[in-house]
Amino acid sequence: MTGLKLLYVEDDARLAGEVCETLRAQGDSVEWVGTGGEGLARAAGEPFDVVILDRMLPDLNGIELVSRLRDAGVAAPVLMLSALGRVENRVDGLEAGVDDYMAKPFEPAELVARIRALHRRAAGQAHSAVILFGDLECQVKARTAHRRGKHIPLSPKEFKLFKYLIENAGEVVTREMLLRHVWNLSFDPQTNVIDVSVGRLRKKLEEGFDTPVLETIWGTGYRLVAG
Hints:
Layout (H helix, E strand, L loop, with lengths): L4 E5 L3 H13 L3 E5 L2 H10 L4 E5 L7 H10 L6 E5 L4 H10 L3 E4 L4 H15 L7 E4 L2 E4 L4 E4 L2 E3 L3 H12 L4 E3 H7 L11 H14 L7 E4 L3 E4 L3
């Protein structure tokens, strides 16, 4: 992937410097601004591949900022960074129009992976005939899964779950997101159907291989990682 054009809205200069250094080392172009007002003006003024913003800003908070960006027709994917990492905080962000939510503190490698996953989705890779991530391959039209060229037999529901996870590869996918997008439910039926389905999928993806690809983020959800 070629370098991305990123907008970073963060009032903590020390953290901003560290993040900018990490992203520029990946070949990305990063524009940093310190207030929500500056972020709104920059994002509305020119296109960016991904907008990264802090939730707590000195003038307007990140939730208000992303709401105003969406109202202004800015469609760039938004990754919100916040020390507020509880489920209700993430839900507030997602409902406001945030595409992904990452709790502080975070690992630089995970930040890079999240940004690239957002960009792949926005660029339409999720709708392509083949989705690749690490040694995993999803044949969308054929509805088949492969790992290192080996066919992984999946049931229709397991394939739908796999497809959603690989579309969001590198990101934490919450139970609420799986219920909505894989099971088409707007409520939690209070069963272990998700845990059982994820467990079966994990076994099929990892059996016979020496590295895991599907990890559980306790209290939050699941994440597909490169094997």
